[in-house]
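Researcher: Let's continue the batch. This sequence belongs to ABC transporter permease, and it's 721 residues. Same format as the previous ones, please.
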Amino acid sequence: MWWKMWIRQFQYECKVMLDRPLWLLIPVIFGVWMYQTLSVGTHPVSEDLYYYLDDYNKLQHVLTLSISVILGILLIRRDMIQPSYEWMSALPISRIGIWSAKWLVGMIYMTLFILFPFGVYVFLSLAKEVPADALWRTLTLFIPLYVLSYALSLTIGMALAAWIRNRIVYFIGLCGWMFGTYFNDIVLVEILQLNPLKLFHLTQFLSGGFHYHELWATPWLMDETLRYGLFATAFIVTLSVCGIVLLQSQQPGRTVKIWKMAFVGSVALLLLSAVPYGMMWGERLAWSEKFAQSARIFEQVNDFYPEQMMKLEETNVQVTRQNDRALKLDASLTGTFAKEGHSVIPFTLDVPFYVEDVKVNGKSVNFERTGQFILVTNSEGVWKKGEQATISFHYMIEGVVRSYSEGNEVISHSAVKDGMNFKHKVAWYPLINQSSLYGSDGSLQRSSSDRSSARHHMRLTLVGFDEFVYTNISELPSSQQNSNNDIQVRQYESMNARGIDLWSGPFLEVNIPQSEVTLLTTPSNKQEAERFASRLGKALAYYRQWLPVYEHIEQIIYMQQEDLASASYTGEVVGNSYYIRQSKHGNLDDYQLPLVLEGILFGEPSKSMSYYKVDLSESLVMELRLMLLEMYRMEVDSQMKFPMRERHHTVKKFTTAYMEGKSEQLKKLLRYYYETNNRLYIDIHAVDDFYNKELPVPEGLYPVITEQSFHEKWTKVMGHE
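Model: Same format as before. Here are the C-alpha cells for ABC transporter permease:
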C-alpha cells in the first residue's frame, strides 16, 4: 500500500539524517546560546527573562532560519536532482510522497531548535519562580511562530533546489534568507516605511512586532498573526506544489499537467490569502492619513479659540464592555467657563473614537467632529464667564489602534479583552486643551505635560468587565452587582488627579510588607519585584518608628513601555500611581529605591523636577528631602544610591552631625519639618504652570523653608551652631 511505501521513505530519510551527528550538535549549541543570552539577566540589571528572550528571537532565531534554508536545499540536492539517483523514479512512491517525507524529516530536525532553547528557557523560568500560567502563555505564543518560520524557510530551500540545480543555489538561498529577514526589516520597513511588506518576513519577531511585551503580546497580535499565518501557510503550499511540478517535469507522465493546474490553483489561493493582511494594512494606512489630516485641522482650529475656556472641576468616565473587542464610553466634564463671548468650545478626543452624542446639562446639542476636536455648540447663545455646565459625551472604540511615534510603531489605544490600554495623555476621554496629538506626517507627538489637566476630582466606573482591570486611581471599597443580569460594576475615584490611565491583563501584584502600596509588574519580574518590595517595606518600617509616614501613592507600576503611546517617565506620579519605565538598566535596583521612597513619602520624586524649568532655590525643601533619605542610608542601607548632584552645605552639616552621634536630634528636626510643612509635598505641575505663564507662585504649592529659619530651628534642636 502507498502509506507503507511512504513510511519506508520516511525511515530512510531519518536514517540519512541520523548518520550526520554534526547536524544534531547544532541545536545543542543554540540551546547553550539561549542560556548565555538569558543568563545576563542577573542583579544589578533587569532580571526579566522574557525581556532577554526578545534578544534571542531577533538574532539567534533569525540565524537558525538560514540553517533551515540550507537544510531544505540539501534534502533535495542529495538525491532528487542527481543523475545517479534516476532509479528513484522507478520506486513505487510518487514525487509528492518523497517530497512530503523529506519535508517532515526536515521539520522534525528543526523542532530541535525549539526543544533545546525553550527547554533552557523553561528551566531558568522555573528557577526564577515565573508563574506557570505566564510560562504557558509564552510557549503557546512563540512555539507556533517558530514552527511557521521553520516550515516557510525549509520549503523555500527545497523549492530553490528543485528549480536551480547549480551549486550557486546555496548562495541564492542565503540571499533569500537575508532578504526575508534583515534586508526586508531594515531597508524596506524601517527606512522606506513600506510596512505592508512585513508580509514577506520569514519571521515576525523583528521590528514593530510587539512580541517583547509579556502582558499584551497575545491579545495585540492575535489578529495580525492569524492573517500572516494564513498567507504563510498558502505560500508553503504554493512553493511545495511548485517544487513538485519542477521535479515531476523531469519525467514524462500524465500527472505533469495535473500538477501544473494545481500550481495555478495554489497561486490563486496565495493571492486570495494575502487579501486579509492587505485589508488590515489598508485600514492602518487610512488611519495614518486621518492622523495627518488631524494635525492640519489643528492648525486651523487653534487660531479661533483661546486655551482653557473652561476650568475643570470634575471628570466622570464610565466604560462599558460591549464584547471582547469593543467598548462604549460615557464621559461627563463639569466645570466653570473662564472665557466669555464664545458659542463654541473645543474638546480634544483622539481620532479613532466615534462620537455618537453630546449633551450640555442633559440636553443634546449640535457638535462637529473634526480631527482630534469635538466642537460643542451652545444652542442658547454664548457661554458666560462664571457659568457652570456639565458636558457629556457618548462615544465608542473597537479593536487595537496603532500609530507611529518618532519612527516606531506604538499602540495608541487598545479595547481588546485582557489587552486593554488607555493613557490619559492620548485623550481617550475628552480633554480641555489644544495640544496637537499628531504631527504633520501623522505620527503621534511625544507626550507632554500640557495634555494633562490640572488636578481635580476624577471618577471612573467600569461596567461588565470580567477580566483583571487596573487603573491609576483608587478603587472605592464596595463593588456593585446588577441584580438583573449579574453585571459587575466597579468604581474608582481620586480627589486630586491629573488623569486616568486604564489597563487589563495578567499583571503580577506584589504587596509591600507593612504598607498599603502594591507593586504592579509583569510575571517574569517576580523575584526581582519581591526582593525590591522587601527592601522597600524594610525602609518604610524604619521611617514609621520615628516619622508620621503618609503614603502619597498606592501603586507602583513597573513594566516596559516602548510600545505604548505617551509612555510614562520613570518617577512620574499620576493619580495614586508611581510609574517606572522598565529597561535592561532601568530596573528595580539601588538607584530606584530612593526614587520610590520619595514618591511614597513626599508625593513626587526629585528626579521628576528635572523635566520642568522650576527654580526652588529659595527653599530648602529639596535638601530636607535628601536629609530624610540620607538618614536611612546611613543607619540601615548603605547600598542605596543617589543621583549625582552638588550637595548644599546644610546637607553636609547634617552628615557631620550624624557622624558626631546626634541621630536622635536629627530625627526630631526632620520630623518637625515633615509634620509642619505638608510632608514636604511639592505640586510641581501647578508650580510649573505658573512659571510658564510668568505669574507669581501662590502660597501652598510647595513649602518655603528659608535657610535662616532652618538655621534657627537647627540651633534650637541641636543646641549649637
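Researcher: Any comment?
Model: The first strand starts at residue 310 and ends at 321.
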